[in-house]
From TrEMBL:
GO terms for biological process: pentose catabolic process; pentose-phosphate shunt; reductive pentose-phosphate cycle. It catalyses: D-ribulose 5-phosphate = D-xylulose 5-phosphate. This is Ribulose-phosphate 3-epimerase. Its cofactor is Fe(2+); Co(2+); Mn(2+); Zn(2+). Gene3D superfamilies: Aldolase class I.
Length: 227
């Protein structure tokens, strides 16, 4: 049985009251706080650095899931681990040595994962499954919130689920399968049916007046999916 987790992205929160936004969404039923880091180099946008993570850490009883859309990645991964991240994911294109970067994150006491853009092949997983706690499939091109879900991501989610199930059946352990981009009440069940267990939602939650109602609606949709 898969456990489903909802991870609101604070990229869509009100930055003028970020600590309260984190507390509010956790009180509304969020499982994870998703933290999008963009460097205006790997992606064409600039967001939050380690100081933001350190600032919200006291406001979050939930794990903080830091998604690094940066290049190079190693120094920032270490800085976010120190700032209070629980999970750190990065894009293989952002690292010169993927195995080493995963090791650095794990050695810093965090869970580690790889992120796959719509056109990034899953073959990067071939030699590093033993170091992964999470695989994140992007269902939009990274850089901006509020984009529409790219339908062919569903096939990639299915393929990633097959890889995870085959690996864990043989070696044990647990690897989460997260999806980020355009996830909302209307499609979350379809994304779950493809194999995802962790769902990043930004504007779909933070763009609504009642966070609890949206998260409850998402859970109702997920309850219809056979885990």
């Amino acid at each position: 049985m898969r456990t489903f987790r909802i991870a609101p992205s604070i990229l869509s929160a009100d930055f003028a009251r970020l600590g309260q936004e984190v507390s509010d969404v956790i009180a509304a039923g969020a499982d994870i706080i998703h933290f999008d880091v963009m460097d205006n180099h790997y992606v064409p946008n600039l967001t939050m650095g380690p100081m933001f993570c350190e600032a919200i850490r006291p406001h979050s009883s939930a794990p903080i899931d830091v998604h690094l859309m940066v290049k190079p990645v190693d120094a920032l991964a270490a800085a976010f681990a120190k700032a209070g991240a629980d999970i750190i994911t990065f894009h293989p294109e952002g690292s010169e040595h993927i195995d080493r970067t995963l090791g650095l994150i794990k050695d810093a006491g965090c869970k580690a994962g790889l992120v796959f853009n719509p056109a990034t092949p899953l073959s990067y997983l071939d030699h590093v499954m033993d170091k992964l706690d999470m695989i994140l499939i992007m269902s939009v091109n990274p850089g901006f919130g509020g984009q529409s879900f790219i339908p062919h991501a569903l096939e990639k989610i299915k393929l990633a689920r097959q890889r995870i199930d085959a690996y864990t059946a043989k070696h044990g352990g647990e690897i989460w399968l997260e999806v980020d981009g355009g996830v909302k009440v209307d499609n979350i069940a379809q994304v779950a049916a493809a194999g995802a267990d962790t769902f990043v939602a930004g504007s779909a939650i933070y763009g609504q007046p009642d966070y609890q109602a949206v998260i409850a609606a998402m859970r109702a949709e997920l309850a219809r999916v056979e885990a």
